[in-house]
Structure formats: C-alpha cells, structure tokens
Write a structure and sequence with these properties.
489 residues; alpha+beta; Beta-lactamase; six-stranded mixed sheet; 15% strand; globular
Length: 489
C-alpha cells in the first residue's frame, strides 16, 4: 500500500474511532445528564404524558399540589392549593424553569421514575393502566400554615415563621413572606411563565427565596438561649451572679456595649438576665465561657451543620469569628458574625422543649405509591446524636423562658396557656443604629407538655421602624401560630 492510501486509511480509522468514542460518551456517560436536562423535550413529553403524583398534608390529606388534565400536548397540568401560602413547602414544577423545592427534592417519586416504583411501572405497561407518579405526604398542618401565613401577610411583614413538633422534629408550618404563586410557573402558556418568572426574579423582595431555611440572620437575643445552655452545662446555675450594669466596655477597643434603652438590669442573677434580656450579662458570660465552649454548645444545637436536609437543603448557621474579646462579647448577644436560619432558631426552643435533645426537622412524613401503599416512611431521629443539654438543665432553662414570656408584651396571649419564650431585637445593615432592627420571637407551648415550638422573624422592624422589638412585632405572630397548633384558632 502506498503512502497516500495508508494515510487516508489511518485518518478514516481515527475518525471512526472518534465517532464510536463520542457515541459511547453521549449514550453512556452523559445519558443521565441529557435525560435530566429541562430542555429535553422528549423527557418533558414523557413526564407530562403521565399523571404526576400529589403533595398532600399528613393529618387531613389536603392536596397542596395536584394535577388536572390539559387540552394540549402535555396531557396534564400542575395545580396548587393557595399557591403563595404553600410555595415554601411545595416549590414549583415548570415546563420552562424546571422543578424547585420539594417538587425537585422528591421529583423521582412524583414523576414515577424512582427505582422503588419499577414493579408498578412494569405492571402498568403490561395491564395497560395509565402510568402515574407516587405521592408525597408532608408533615405540615394546614391550620398552622394558614395562621402563620395570614398573620404575616395581613401585617405586610417580610420574614419567616417555622413551627416544629419538638418531640419528633415534624415541621408543622413553614412560611416565607413575601411569597409567589407556583401555579403561574406551572402554566403551559410560555408567555405566562416568562412574565411570572421575570416579575418574581426581578422583585427586590426576592419572593422565591425560602427565608425559613435559605436565609441567615443575626439572631439577636434569641441566641442567649445557647449562651445560657452553655453556662448551665459548665457549672453555673440560675442563681449564679452576673453583672447588672447598664453598659460594659468592650475589651481592647474604645467602645461600649449596653443594655436595651441603656437600662440597669433589674436583677443580678443568670435567671434575671435571661428574663429581662440583659445584654451586658450575656456579653461577659460569653467571654467567660470562651470560644471553645461556646462553639461546642452551639454545635450541640445543630449550629454549624453543613449537610442538614429536610429534604430541602437548609443553609448552614454559624457563629463567625470568635478570636478575641470584642467578638465574644458581641456574639454573646447574637450580633457580630452570628447568623442563624429561622429553622435553627425554632430548633433552639424545640430542643429545650424536648428535654435538651434536638430532633432533626423533617418535612416529609412518607412517600406513597400510586396504589396508596407506603414506599418509605420517615421515623423521628435525633439531629446531632447527642443532647444539647441535660434534661435537668433544660427544665431550668424552660423556667427562665417562662419568666421571659411573662415580661414580653404583644398580642395573642391566651388565658390558661403557659408559654416559654425568648424575644430578640437584632441590629443589622451598614448603619445599624439607623436601620430598623429584625424582630424575633421563639417559643414553645404548653410549657409543661410541649407540643409545638416556633420561631418568627420580621425583617427590618415590620411596621414599627426603629422602635421595633421582638415583643412588639413578632410575638403576636408566634402566639397566633401556637394557638392554631394547639387548636385555639
């Protein structure tokens, strides 16, 4: 064979080899990526040709996300009950923008492609039954979700509410405001989808952000629960003497840290400091405990976890830099670089309510097959594998929180119901003294037999501006949520 022919033969062999390699890469290595790509019309048409599963509440079976037949090529369209109210729970399912939230986390169950549904799919094909996806049963209770959402919206508040069952970790309510309507993104009209998407994503209020689990905030005085737990676990008692000074100087810098309103604390014990939320006492306590003990106590509550899923991903909460005295003083009152999600703040109260044992928050109660048999049920599990504090110390902290609630103003108090709570008023922004503070309220009830633990954040003072406090703004929202959970409207 002469040289030119040999070169042509080698070139053709190389090209054939490259074609085979490319075909193998596309059909084997990248197959799952192409199959999952939202632009893959074949996959879309296949998914929409079968009935997507429902998202339902566990106690009442209320359908939060369902389907109905459509008169176009997609066969079915996703529907949502009170879309903005439940958007933080369900997420959205869109032809153009894909699944999000629980719709994404449980997509294989809902679209029927989960391996555990293989036998069902095979049976459907053999018998000629319509292919259907599985269902997701969530822990959210509609009356709790409705009370929390309506309380936030009626006041025009921006923020979040989380309600937990402290014994199981079940999420009874998860609200984020302002919210968005997932039904508009589920429309089969591309213009409607695009208009809604543009409106939501360009809104400065970020209505598509689930503030309850995806945003972190300075927790303010709600973080004093962690400092108190650390103090009790390290040998202090409710009667331990602490400063009651109106202000203390930050070590190493020319700046003071003061109590709210520059008031002298009415008492000089740890119990009084929590009951009256005295900043100076907790600043010095944090410094006395030191960074190592404070971080250890926070970690036992779940602060710092980077892999928490409910099954939606929860943004990590963190303490930030604790290298020096000023950092410890300011962190002891939930400022400086301390950042917690509303879910984490709810966990603080839930852990105290559960005798010091934090339970993993869980949004999904069970995955259910189309024939209503259970695919998987989720049992309660501990969050960190160790108690955040002893049951004895949790009881002491509960009593301190009851005293705190007795000093907390705001509406919604219910005669005969004893609540254990802690408020927070958190500075933030470039000019904290000139920026309305975030208002916090976290609590559990009934105090002697806890059935619900909650956290509320109202961003930037709500309607109270610079005068906002956790008690004047957030407490009434929290109590309304608690009352709904306990059957009190």
């Amino acid at each position: 064979m002469n040289t030119p022919l040999r070169k042509v033969g080698v070139a053709m062999l190389v090209m054939v080899t490259l074609l085979l390699v490319n075909a193998t890469y596309i059909q084997v290595v990248k197959a799952d990526d192409y199959r999952a790509d939202s632009r893959n019309q074949r996959v879309l048409l296949d998914e929409y040709s079968r009935q997507r599963g429902q998202i339902v509440s566990s106690d009442s079976g209320q359908i939060l996300a369902g389907v109905k037949p459509s008169d176009d090529k997609y066969n079915f369209i996703r529907t949502y009950l009170n879309g903005p109210m439940y958007a933080p729970v369900t997420g959205h399912y869109s032809i153009r923008y894909g699944p999000y939230g629980l719709e994404r986390a449980a997509d294989e169950i809902l679209n029927g492609s989960d391996p555990r549904l293989f036998v069902r799919r095979l049976s459907d094909m053999i018998t000629g039954r319509d292919l259907r996806g599985g269902n997701v049963r969530v822990t959210v209770r509609p009356e709790v979700q409705e009370a929390a959402y309506n309380s936030m919206v009626e006041n025009g508040y921006q923020g979040a509410v989380v309600a937990l069952d402290p014994k199981t970790g079940d999420i009874l309510g998860m609200v984020s405001t302002p919210s968005y309507d997932p039904a508009k993104l589920a429309s089969h009209d591309s213009d409607v989808q695009e208009e809604a998407w543009t409106a939501y994503t360009e809104d400065e209020a970020n209505p598509m952000v689930n503030r309850s689990i995806s945003e972190t905030y300075p927790p303010g005085s709600t973080f004093k629960l962690v400092v108190t737990a650390a103090a009790l676990e390290n040998g202090m008692t409710a009667d331990t003497k602490v400063t009651n000074a109106a202000e203390v100087q930050l070590p190493g810098v020319n700046a003071d840290l003061e109590n709210f309103g520059h008031q002298t604390c009415p008492g000089d014990t740890l119990a009084a400091a929590l009951a009256y939320s005295c900043n100076t006492a907790f600043a010095e306590l944090a410094n006395e405990l030191g960074a190592e003990k404070l971080r250890a106590a926070a970690a036992r509550f779940g602060i710092g976890m980077t892999d928490l899923r409910i099954p939606l991903r929860v943004a990590p909460s963190a303490l930030g830099d604790l290298t020096g005295g000023p950092e410890l003083y300011q962190s002891g009152i939930g400022q400086r670089d301390v950042r917690l999600t509303p879910m984490q703040v709810a966990l603080l109260s839930a852990t105290v309510a559960n005798g010091g044992v934090p339970m993993k928050p869980q949004l999904v109660d069970a995955y259910i097959a189309p024939d209503l048999s259970d695919i998987e049920e989720f049992a309660p599990e501990e969050l960190t594998g160790e108690a955040a504090m002893s049951q004895e110390h949790a009881t002491v902290l509960r009593d301190m929180m009851i005293a705190s609630e007795n000093n907390t103003k705001g509406g919604g108090k219910r005669e005969g119901l004893e609540i254990a709570s802690k408020t927070g008023t958190a500075e933030h922004g470039v000019s904290p003294k000139e920026t309305p503070p975030h208002a916090w309220y976290t609590a559990f009830a009934p105090a002697d037999n806890p059935q619900v633990a909650i956290a509320v954040i109202v961003e930037s003072g709500g309607n109270r501006g610079l005068a906002a406090t956790g008690g004047s703004v957030a407490a009434s929202i929290g109590r309304a949520t608690i009352n709904a959970a306990l059957g009190g409207g």
